[in-house]
């Protein structure tokens, strides 16, 4: 289960600056990768104890690290824990997972949300255990469609075929019906830019998602801006329960 260094087979996808930030990358430090293994372990235990499978990776604001967290969590659960993972790019406003994994975004979630029956959504096979559903081409009301019954159908179908369904989302503050989307999944993790995100925004996000649904808070970039925080090490990453 333990894995250090680069992940064979997918390492080639991550070059340049990505090689330092994405756990499949060749220049990721063991301490950095270890933080994601801790987060994955927390989810693994929550699955064992409570059967959770579908998880929103959320944050109050843009640029807090949702996409990076979702990516590294998906890689860790698939490569280190050997679980079948579907990673969904639901940030229809600013999709980016197709850039991270360097795959086309010709069709994806938003196409499926327009009409689930008409066409199958294209899935990108990143590695034997990691599948990506890119965002696709957004429609006129991309954010509204995330709280539609079709989104629920996508998630319900996905949990039938995968061990984990991880959903990268737009900032909670920009989601008109964050509570409806949150109600479709088993849990949410809230990514917080340590020392930057105002507490009031974080509390608001927790209330919108539903306090019971928030499994934990990921303190991202710990040490990069606020070294007084109690946890998170080295490369600026940590997670904790409670808020
Ligand atoms: N812990 C971190 N260490 C280094 N770079 C980070 C870290 N967290 C986020 N970043 C970088 O900051 C930028 C914003 O992060 P991203 O995951 O795209 O945020 P979001 O999806 O919440 O908008 C990206 O370039 C990302 O690679
Ligand atoms: Mg993002």
Walkthrough of the structure:
The protein is α/β, with parallel strands linked by helices and 243 residues long. It has a single domain (29-240), classed as P-loop containing nucleotide triphosphate hydrolases (Rossmann fold, 3-Layer(aba) Sandwich). It has helices at 18-21, 30-50, 66-80, 97-101, 109-114, 142-145, 149-161, 178-182, 199-209; strands spanning 54-58, 85-89, 124-127, 130-133, 164-168, 187-193, 214-220, 237-240. The protein has an 8-stranded mixed sheet, sandwiched between helices. It is globular and about 45 Å long. Mean pLDDT is 86; it is low at 1-6 and 226-238. Magnesium ion binds at residues 66-67, 91, 96, 168.
Features:
35% helix, 9 helices, 243 residues, binds adenosine-5'-diphosphate, Rossmann fold, alpha/beta, single chain
Question: Which helices and strands appear, and what pairs or packs with what?
Answer:
Blueprint: H1 18-21, H2 30-50, E1 54-58, H3 66-80, E2 85-89, H4 97-101, H5 109-114, E3 124-127, E4 130-133, H6 142-145, H7 149-161, E5 164-168, H8 178-182, E6 187-193, H9 199-209, E7 214-220, E8 237-240
Parallel strand pairs: 1-5, 1-6, 2-4, 2-5, 6-7
Antiparallel strand pairs: 3-4, 7-8
Helix pairs in contact: 2-3
The structure holds adenosine-5'-diphosphate and magnesium ion (MG).
Residues 66-67, 91, 96, 168 line the site of magnesium ion (MG).
Instruction: Please estimate the helix content.
Output: 25-40%
The total of beta strands comes to 8
Overall mean pLDDT score? 86
Largest sheet: 8 strands, mixed
Count up the helices. 9
Termini gap: 30 Å
Radius of gyration: 17 Å
Strand content bin: 15-25%
CATH class value: Alpha Beta
Reported by name, the CATH topology is Rossmann fold
Order of helix and strand elements from N to C terminus: HHEHEHHEEHHEHEHEE
The hetero molecules present are: adenosine-5'-diphosphate, magnesium ion
Give the domain tally.
Answer: 1
Backbone structural class = alpha/beta
Shape descriptor reads globular
Please state how the strands of the largest beta sheet are arranged side by side.
3-4-2-5-1-6-7-8
């Amino acid at each position: 289960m333990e894995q250090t260094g680069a992940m064979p087979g997918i390492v080639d996808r991550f070059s340049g600056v990505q090689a330092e930030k994405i756990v499949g990358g060749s220049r990721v430090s063991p301490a950095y990768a270890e933080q994601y293994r801790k987060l994955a372990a927390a989810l693994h235990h929550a699955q064992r104890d409570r059967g959770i499978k579908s998880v929103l990776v959320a944050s109050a604001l843009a640029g807090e690290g949702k996409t990076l967290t979702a990516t590294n969590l998906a890689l860790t659960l698939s490569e280190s824990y050997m679980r079948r993972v579907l990673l969904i790019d639901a940030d229809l406003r600013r999709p980016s997972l197709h850039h991270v994994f360097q795959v086309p975004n010709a069709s994806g979630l938003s196409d499926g949300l327009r009409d689930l029956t008409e066409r199958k959504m294209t899935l990108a096979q990143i590695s034997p255990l990691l599948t990506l559903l890119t965002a696709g081409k957004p429609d006129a009301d991309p954010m509204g469609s995330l709280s539609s019954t079709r989104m629920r159908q996508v998630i319900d179908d996905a949990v039938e075929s995968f061990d984990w369904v991880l959903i990268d989302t737009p900032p909670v503050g920009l989601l008109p019906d964050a509570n409806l989307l949150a109600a479709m999944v088993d849990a949410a993790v809230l990514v917080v830019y340590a020392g930057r995100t105002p507490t009031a925004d974080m509390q608001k996000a927790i209330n919108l998602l539903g306090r019971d649904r928030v499994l934990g808070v990921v303190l991202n970039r710990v040490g990069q801006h606020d070294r007084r925080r109690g946890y998170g090490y080295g490369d600026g990453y940590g997670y904790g329960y409670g808020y």
